Amino acid sequence: MRKLLLFIAASLIGASVSAQPSVPKSYVFAGQKVSFERSDMYERMDREVIAFTYMHSTSILMLKRSSKFFPQVEPILKEYGLPDDLKYIMVIESNLDPNAYSKAGAAGLWQLMPAVARENGLEVNANVDERYNVEKATRVACKILKKSYAKFGDWLTVAAAYNAGQGGISSRLEKQHQTKAQDLWLVEETSRYMFRVMAAKMMFEDPASFGFMVPEMSKYQYVAPREVVTVKDPVSNLVEFALKHAVTYAQLKSANLWLREDKLNNTSHKEYRIIIPSE
């Protein structure tokens, strides 16, 4: 009703209507209070709030996807003793698109680079790419975030380091004689990154204030697997494997994006867990 009245009033005086929320004096992210009373901090946050307000299709899709991926990620963050708000780093990285792949070669919800993924025990090759495995990729991201917090002791700095690398942020902190990344002169992408994460939290917690009405029933829901099949041998034909388990090949691939080909080579007889979707 309030928005309707605003629209009518604005129409009468020839003004435009915006559902854009105002930037608060301060905001709590990952248990840490961030002040926007300094003019540069206010402007940087305001820019990201505006961006989330007006990139309509992307914002709506992210809101819809959240009910599918947050339930998978939140328990893992809790298991690692990390703040729940860190899931918004994943939001910024991939727009909650599990197929996300960057020009730099980062992949999956957490946009892990091949070298980083391999260093943390994930398999990355043409046949299997575990960066697309939601659980495994989230565990790697948690290890990185936890290690970063032990180094910096500030969650926004951790976010900046996730984007630019711990080494790059450490060097800039030292050269610019600062202790927090939000006080650094950084390349635009990293400078915006910290504020985009906070703006994402604001939007997900109160989408109506950004002008988005996305009923829970319209969101893409997480559906637990019908079963999880453990295999230790090669699977020569995933189409036949899918049919054997009463699902289509398309359903199998969608539920197991880490399977990059129509077969699973597994010459080393490694143990893999293949999800059989329930629908």
Explained architecture:
- This protein has 279 residues and is mostly helical.
- The protein has eleven helices and four strands.
- The strands form two sheets. It has a two-stranded antiparallel ribbon.
- A hairpin with a 2-residue loop joins strand 1 and strand 2.
- Helix 3 packs across helix 6, helix 4 packs across helix 9 and helix 6 packs across helix 7.
- The longest helix has 24 residues.
- It is globular.
- 31% of the residues are buried.
Average pLDDT works out at 93
Strand content: 5-15%
Question: How many DSSP-defined strands?
Answer: 4
Main β sheet profile: 2 strands, antiparallel
* Head-to-tail CA distance between termini: 39 Å
- Topology pattern, helix = H, strand = E: HEEHHHHHHHHEHHE
Poorly predicted segments: 4-18
* Alpha-carbon Rg, integer: 21 Å
Biggest sheet strand order reads 1-2
> Considering DSSP H and I runs of 4 or more, what fraction of the residues is helical?
40-55%
Structural class, from secondary structure content?
mainly alpha
What is the general shape?
globular
Quaternary status of these chains?
Answer: single chain
Number of helices: 11
Describe the secondary structure blueprint for this structure.
Layout: H1 2-13, E1 26-29, E2 32-35, H2 39-54, H3 56-79, H4 87-94, H5 114-119, H6 134-152, H7 155-164, H8 166-175, H9 188-205, E3 227-231, H10 238-244, H11 249-255, E4 272-276
Antiparallel strand pairs: 1-2, 3-4
Helix pairs in contact: 2-9, 3-6, 4-9, 6-7, 7-8, 7-9
